[in-house]
Amino acid sequence: MHRVLVTGGCGFIGSNFIRRLLRTDPNAHITNLDCLTYAGNPENLADIEDDARYRFVRGDIADAKKVKRLTAEVETVFHFAAESHVDRSIHDAQPFVRTNIVGTQVLLEAARLHPIKRFVHISTDEVYGSSGPTGAFSEQAPLAANNPYAASKAAADLLVRSYCQTYRMPAVITRSSNNFGPYQFPEKLIPYFIARILQDETVPLYGDGLQVRDWIHVADHCRAIELVWRRGRIGEVYNIGGGCEKTNLEVTRLLLRALGKPESLIRFVADRPGHDRRYALDCRKIETELGWRPQIPFEQGLLDTLRWYQENTVWVAHVLSGAYRQLAVNTTSRLARAS
Question: Does an H or E element contain 221, and which?
């Protein structure tokens, strides 16, 4: 038996990873610790909730007592839990500091007191800041976060590094580009725009829509995380990118075309403060050391994602109902549609 703790497993990437690990590792027994904030949805794992190898525990990663108890029961920690939306961090940075920084430290300390075999910390390319019109960030690039969300993730990365250096924590860090795929809360660009386009509603693009993002399908990302866990070197950082740079305007046009809708649905809105112009990752390290490369072409993944949202309208309605819907309505003007 291989005992695993996944934090934030009811979120988008975490739920996809849990489903993958149960499929690829028959010896894995997973405890999922999730606070179930607005983007943490237990319906994301409804299909495996009766699996004897899976257990859900509702709780906060900043709850030291609970985290210590759960960490003592496992051998591996996959740390996905995070507040992750840029515009929310601009509006109120406090939850990001508490979850992303304090919560990470609580989890690291628990892992230090109950020695584990591997601590996998899931981070983001946003810690590097904007990459400029050319070139790409390697793992050696300095951290230059430009918004409170990115700053909180950079701080968490440095905490993980410090525990590696000071306490010999057997940790690795992954930094991925923009993810897309099934079960993503419909506030990010692709699922949000799909939902609006299907209702013939306008789609708001920040600024001129020419911000560049490198897109990766969540299944490719999860495959990379598992590989880093199994074969990555302790104390190292691994960039995980899709090698697919597209402007937000290009992605929007692809969605409109796929759904047979006119470009007149595009509505350009005022840009957000500190909006990074371009993200780009140099992923030669994971490719060379671990033999990983993305397998799902962007256009194919986009069409598959579109079909998933069309076939799961009940899921979309549920996550946007009640408190979820009220939260979305109250924050529509400040949500980051482009990150």
Answer: helix 218-231
Give yes or no: residues 44 and 146 share one domain.
yes
How many residues in total does the chain contain? Answer: 339
C-alpha 203: how far from its chain's center? Answer: 22
Interval 105-158: pLDDT, tens: 999 999 999 989 999 999 999 999 998 888 999 999 999 999 999 999 999 999
Is the same domain home to 146 and 197? no
**CATH code (residue 270):** 3.90.25.10
The upper half-sphere exposure of residue 250, i.e. CA atoms within 13 Å in the direction of its Cβ, equals 13
We report the CATH number of the domain holding residue 90 as 3.40.50.720
Structure tokens at 59: 């709780």
Which domain, by its residues, includes 96?
2-179+216-240
**In this structure, how many other beta carbons lie within 10 angstroms of the beta carbon of residue 279?**
23
Q: Is 284 inside a domain boundary?
A: no
Contact (CB, 8 A) for 81 and 38: no
* Pairing of the two strands 245-247 and 212-217: antiparallel
Residues 99 and 203 in one domain: no
Say if residue 123 is in the same domain as residue 266.
no
* Torsion-angle region of 124 (φ positive above 0: left; ψ -120 to 50: alpha; else: beta): beta
For 54-69, write each residue's pLDDT tens digit: 999 999 999 999 999 9
Q: How far is CA 294 from CA 17, 24, 283, 339, in A?
A: 16, 18, 10, 20
The Cα 20–Cα 223 span in angstroms is 8
Residues designated as active site: 125-126, 149
